[in-house]
Automatic annotation (TrEMBL):
<feature type="binding site">
    <location>
        <position position="114"/>
    </location>
    <ligand>
        <name>Fe cation 2</name>
    </ligand>
</feature>
<protein>
    <recommendedName>
        <fullName>acid phosphatase</fullName>
        <ecNumber>3.1.3.2</ecNumber>
    </recommendedName>
</protein>
<feature type="binding site">
    <location>
        <position position="245"/>
    </location>
    <ligand>
        <name>Fe cation 1</name>
    </ligand>
</feature>
<feature type="binding site">
    <location>
        <position position="243"/>
    </location>
    <ligand>
        <name>Fe cation 2</name>
    </ligand>
</feature>
<keyword id="KW-0732">Signal</keyword>
<dbReference type="InterPro" id="IPR051558">
    <property type="entry name" value="Metallophosphoesterase_PAP"/>
</dbReference>
<feature type="signal peptide">
    <location>
        <begin position="1"/>
        <end position="21"/>
    </location>
</feature>
<dbReference type="InterPro" id="IPR029052">
    <property type="entry name" value="Metallo-depent_PP-like"/>
</dbReference>
<feature type="binding site">
    <location>
        <position position="76"/>
    </location>
    <ligand>
        <name>Fe cation 2</name>
    </ligand>
</feature>
<feature type="domain" description="Calcineurin-like phosphoesterase">
    <location>
        <begin position="37"/>
        <end position="246"/>
    </location>
</feature>
<feature type="binding site">
    <location>
        <position position="43"/>
    </location>
    <ligand>
        <name>Fe cation 1</name>
    </ligand>
</feature>
<comment type="similarity">
    <text>Belongs to the metallophosphoesterase superfamily. Purple acid phosphatase family.</text>
</comment>
<feature type="binding site">
    <location>
        <position position="79"/>
    </location>
    <ligand>
        <name>Fe cation 1</name>
    </ligand>
</feature>
<dbReference type="GO" id="GO:0003993">
    <property type="term" value="F:acid phosphatase activity"/>
</dbReference>
<keyword id="KW-0479">Metal-binding</keyword>
<dbReference type="GO" id="GO:0046872">
    <property type="term" value="F:metal ion binding"/>
</dbReference>
<dbReference type="Pfam" id="PF00149">
    <property type="entry name" value="Metallophos"/>
</dbReference>
């Protein structure tokens, strides 16, 4: 069995199965030959500018060559300040009209980034967007079961305390979060349970923020203290993220390997 993962550097048949604790679980049909291939990108929604359109063309070519099963977005889906609502034309102009290649007409699994929280975060989670473009699926935290691999999507923005205490002039949409402490506590509990019960050959975790990084933003201390120990305890194979607009591969020296992919 093989896992094929392609990271795409940008400038800037879905089946609902069940709920697992508080994390929704989605089934991704497996190939008969026991392989899995997908693209990963982050920090991309620019209405085609900043080389987004050019990269989309290359994504289409690679997607066709590898016959990808789906696409993963690590957040900051729409710049600069997310969407204004579920009728915001930025959704079509930055997503539907950009990723037009036949090979990219697969399911897209997305999480929110900090820029998405600066707009109407609830809009990106709305089923209305799925009616506009059925490829789109964005939730705060959820699981994709692709049989060979289970991918655990984690909402990392509420972990970062500075977004609450020093917003630097930005307004964040914290609807649906409630108490950040309780929200994070419940998310950690649900993630621990889901990871401990997973029997997948590959266990992959996706979030927007880096755990460790030598990029502009550096380490996310809240994830170092709260998320990394969970990944380590449950033998997660690697963690994928965006946020730092660079490409990094960071590994532990111990048996557990942590790979931070910052996709610009």
């Amino acid at each position: 069995m093989a896992l094929c993962l392609v990271l795409v550097i940008c400038s800037f048949g879905l089946c609902f199965v069940s709920t697992h604790a508080e994390l929704q679980r989605f089934g991704q049909p497996a190939r008969t030959e026991g392989t899995l291939s997908f693209l990963v990108l982050g920090d991309w929604g620019r209405k085609g500018a900043f080389n987004q359109s050019e990269v989309a063309v290359q994504m289409g070519r690679i997607g066709e060559k590898l016959d990808i099963d789906f696409v993963v977005s690590t957040g900051d889906n729409f710049y600069d300040n997310g969407l204004t609502g579920n009728q915001d034309r930025a959704f079509v102009e930055s997503f539907t009209q950009i990723y037009t290649a036949n090979s990219l007409q697969k399911q897209w699994y997305s999480v929110l980034g900090n820029h998405d929280y600066r707009g109407n975060a609830e809009a990106q989670l709305s089923q209305q967007l799925r009616k506009i473009d059925s490829r789109w699926l964005c939730l705060r935290s959820f699981i994709v079961n692709a049989e060979l691999a289970e991918i655990f999507f984690v909402d990392t923005t509420p972990f970062v305390q500075s977004y609450f205490t020093n917003a630097e002039g930005h307004t964040y949409d914290w609807r649906g979060i409630g108490s950040p402490r309780d929200y994070i506590s419940n998310l950690i509990k649900d993630l621990k349970l889901a990871l401990s019960e997973s029997s997948a050959k590959w266990k992959i975790v996706v979030g927007h923020h880096a755990i460790r990084s030598i990029g502009h933003h550096g380490d996310t201390e809240e994830l170092v203290s709260k998320l990394h120990p969970i990944l380590k305890a449950n033998n997660v194979d690697f963690y994928m993220n965006g946020h730092d607009h660079c490409l990094e591969h960071i590994s532990d020296t111990e048996r557990y390997s942590l790979s931070d992919y910052c996709v610009a």
